[in-house]
Amino acid sequence: MTISFGNPDRPNSYIGKTVPRPNAPRLVQGRGKYVDDIVLPRMAHVVFVRSPHAHAQIGAIDTAEASGVKGVLRIFTGAEIAAVCTPWVAVLAHLKGLKSPPQHAVAVDRTCWVGEPVAAVVATSRAAAEEAAALVEVDYTPLPAVTDMMTALDADTPVLHPEMGDNLAFRRLHEEGDVEAAFARAHKVVEAHFKTARHTGVTLEPRSILVDWNPAEGQMTAWHATQAPHMMQTVFAKHLDLPEGRVRVICDDVGGSYGIKVHVYPDEVATAAIAKIMARPVKFVADRLESFTTDIHARDHEIGARLAVDADGKILAFDIDDWTAIGAYSVYPRTSAIEGNQVVNLCGGPYDFANYRAQTSVVFQNKTPTCQYRAVGHPIAVAVTEGLVDMAAAAIGMDPVEIRRRNLYADDAYPVTSPAKMRFEGLSHHASLNKLLELMNYDALRAEQAALREKGIHRGIGIASFIELTNPSPFMYGIGGARISAQDGCTVRMDPDGSIVALSGVTEQGQGTEAMLAQIVAEGVGVPPARVRVITGDTQVTPYGGGTWASRGAGIGGEAALQSALALKASILEVAGAMLQSPADALDIRDGQVVDSATGEARMPLEELGRIVYFRGDTLPKGLPRELVQTRHFITSDYPFAFTNGVQASYLEVDTGTGEVKLLKHWCVEDCGRIINPQLVDEQIRGGIVQGLGGALYEEIHYDADGQLLNGSMADYLVPMAAEMPDMIVGHVETPTMESALGAKGAGEAGTAGAPAAVMNAINDALRPMGAQVTAMPFTPERILRAMGQIED
Amino acid sequence: MKALAGGYARARDVAHAVDLLAKADGMGRVLAGGQSLIAAMNMRLSTGDMLVDISRIDALRGVTVDGESLRIGALTRHADIGADPLVARHAPLLAQAVQHIAHAAIRNRGTIGGSLAHADPAAEFPACVLALGGTIHLQGPEGARTVAAEDFFIDIFETAIAEGEILTAITLPLAEAGEQHLLIETARRSGDYALAGLCLVKRAAGYRLSAFSVGPRPVLAVAAMERLDAGDVAGAVAALRAEIDPPGDTQASAAYRRHLAGVLLTRALHDLTGETA
Ligand SMILES: Cc1cc2nc3c(=O)[nH]c(=O)nc-3n(C[C@H](O)[C@H](O)[C@H](O)COP(=O)(O)OP(=O)(O)OC[C@H]3O[C@@H](n4cnc5c(N)ncnc54)[C@H](O)[C@@H]3O)c2cc1C
């Protein structure tokens, strides 16, 4: 069965329409159920004593005074947790050479960053546990801390993990063509040093987990704010020595994730270990300071980069030297080498060129571990690529649009393999750029910019083309040996009243997964979306799946939902055919009714079919298949990843007196293949842009030279706020992937991927007449004035 | 984190509050709008406080004209100051300030007395009161006394309020005919504390200029005021930059703040008088 997506008037045409989100009223009315809302009998609370040192030997831990606090049940040291919980090592076989030492849930002997758990206090209330935690005396002997990325490999820098030999966690060099020769014959070479600041995801709901261990059943249940319940099931089972089938992970409502909640956190595993030891439910909810010191950080990169062009502006070669510092451990199980690896994979991504060299060097340091965060590596690669392209345009006196036109892959060039060895099935760079220019009225905007410049008003226009990696296959993690599922499944069933229940392995963290699934299933079966109930986030209930990461929910989970819904429809029609004495293919289901497919004439409501199947099965022919439940799984197989593309533009004004940037407007045209729900896609793009703008202008985790975190609060770590956000115009080009019937690729990260580059280029466009340029994010007022030479120290 | 208060009592009136503070054995802490205190308690930056809640003492709330001065009760909320017609007429600087203080939810609870007593060097109201030459009214076990704004702010979060005293009101001179007020600041995001800010008041007798977020307390920029009175804008900018001692932090360096203060002064003068440097 197929769907004629080209016909918007087809029956049950929910795919491609904005339909109401089934979970929105619940959340808006405060009826959501987050981990912190769950209270179980005999539930205890755990609070972690966290290291105040970036690097220190742990000596004696004195818990005498803390134990005396009213309500304290037990205090655990790292060694006591380690007795029931094995350490983990976060490496993947396909990331050759990646190394990382074993990491414990609670530090044993040595602590490696400010915030690492050193002891755990369990009490009857969070307040009592906090009070006691403050009284736990740990005898620390400070060790020298490695905090500077660029000197981490120097001979006189101490080696953080002596058994690892050096501070290099991972290095990958990729070379294609003859880079040196290309630079030698270039008409112009531009070169710059870029920095993207260390930042973090700042989810509205902090990391939260409640774990119960029932020794009578031999079953562990974890209510967990996670994006990947099945992955966590494996992790708990493996490290707490339980059969995987005896671990159940449930995610009710999750308040935002952005990649932050797809990793294994020591304190969360320790909570599970403690629940097992104490045989009672234990809850851990991070507070905001803990979030800043222990949620994964990301984007801490410095990149030296060069670009060679010929006299016509054709790109001859890119040469990228990326550095990133990941903290003291590679994060389990996805590892902390992926972000740097992505920079190598993605630089130059939109462009048709021949010579490419890119290296990433990933080093250890005594800071919070970094790992995958929304648009992993993309904002870095796009900023470097697009920054260089604009510099090259300026160097040869060409308009930034024109240089892109001359270099973007032609829209009929596909399939094609990039110099970074990324395979593109079908992209639409030129169509997207043309649409963007139309939406922004590019020529008029340039004229306005020029006119205002005469009056001393400095506005800039910045453009950034990008590619985005979505719908990953096992090439991302599975081939490296991680039990992280790239396939996903969906079970769809019809109940006696004709209503539909869909159980999916992809998860909902607020992005609208359940709305997307509901409308796909509604169209696939032929019922209104309101008759579909979607259940996600329960490893004992849903089909096995990967959850939410790398923009896979709609493309992978959506296709599984579509195929299972179509299969259920076929099952229903087979039964209906027997009941109505009609060939099944002469029937259809529309709006919850079995109809005659040629005339649309109603033949039987689904509730009548349900009544017969479930209560009067005796009236149906013996041997008629009557399973009104179908499961399908989907995995991509033709391409390792479904790449999408897009282009963004930023229009802004730089205050050359104060250095402030005022964002005036932002545009994005992207191609995520088939759009299932236009509003959800647009809001994903907008939210993603906001997160990208945060990286460009505001977000930066500061550490001092000793590895102390300096800004662990919402007053000091600046996230983008509504008042500063510009109007955003979002447009689309649709190039469906041929890998699936649905044709959907991911849309969740495109906004974040391109926004920082667009803003950087716009600022530099505004500053160029003054001979100034910024390349270190975030572009604070001070950095802008310093680039202009305005500040005297 | 969970706050750890030592105790809580709600005061009926000022005398009761002073009495409660006296009995608190040095741990007494006035609770007004709670917009700074509760945040500090929730981060356990302050623990064991015996909270004396003055927020229901009606006598401490409201704006009146009292002879030659404008009297603002300590518990008058930021939002009320922003909407008050007497403030708009006699001390428009304060109404301007409200637009820059935090967000609506905080302005609905935060009080001017709390803001002055808290004495955050980046806060707007302390600098306003300094620029306007206001007077702070205190009441304690020994009775009532007044302190001139110029003597009130001592250091970061430190004022002339003595142990056991409560700030009850501030009084300000009524704006004279033709008096001009301007508050200008630069913050990273709307509602954030300023990276630097200025209050500029132009009276018949001359300029008054205070700066905030440029040192451990709001500064009355006396040398710059003198240059302004002399009509020397460039000299005023240089003098201002010389008489402030801004901090450097994760948002901006001292050098940036010093530079910014000068830029803001040039702009403030331009906005107020059309003068350019
Ligand atoms: C997110 C956020 C942003 C903010 N941004 C700004 C800003 O941009 N600009 C700004 O100026 N402020 C800002 N504030 C602070 C806000 O203005 C506070 O309301 C104000 O600083 C304190 O007033 P309060 O009534 O809430 O005092 P409380 O928090 O109740 O008390 C603060 C301190 O003053 C003492 N105190 C209070 N009243 C009295 C009194 N009558 N007598 C003696 N002592 C007293 C208390 O004991 C305590 O030590 C912000 C606050 C928040 C939470």
Would you kindly provide a written description of the structure presented here, covering whatever features stand out?
The complex is a heterodimer of chains A (793) and B (277). Chain A is α+β, with helices and mostly antiparallel strands and 793 residues long. Chain A has three domains: 157 residues, Aldehyde Oxidoreductase, domain 4 (2-Layer Sandwich); 202 residues, Aldehyde oxidase/xanthine dehydrogenase, a/b hammerhead (Aldehyde Oxidoreductase, domain 3, Alpha-Beta Complex), CATH 3.90.1170; 240 residues, Aldehyde oxidase/xanthine dehydrogenase, molybdopterin binding domain (Aldehyde Oxidoreductase, domain 4). In chain A, 27% of the residues lie in helices and 24% in strands. In chain A, helix 17 crosses helix 18. The radius of gyration of chain A is 28 Å and the shape is globular. The mean pLDDT of chain A is 97. Chain B folds into three domains: 49 residues, Uridine Diphospho-n-acetylenolpyruvylglucosamine Reductase, domain 2; 115 residues, 2-Layer Sandwich (Uridine Diphospho-n-acetylenolpyruvylglucosamine Reductase, domain 3), CATH 3.30.465.10; 94 residues, 2-Layer Sandwich (Enolase-like, domain 1). In chain B, strands 4-5-10-6-7 form a five-stranded antiparallel beta sheet. Chain B has a four-stranded antiparallel beta sheet with strand order 11-12-13-14, sandwiched between helices. The radius of gyration of chain B is 19 Å and the shape is globular. The mean pLDDT of chain B is 96. At the A-B interface, helix 4 and helix 19 of A face helix 12 of B. Flavin-adenine dinucleotide (FAD) binds next to strand 2, helix 2, helix 7, helix 8 and strand 10 of chain B. The site of flavin-adenine dinucleotide (FAD) has 30 residues of chain B, from strand 2, helix 2, helix 7, helix 8 and strand 10.
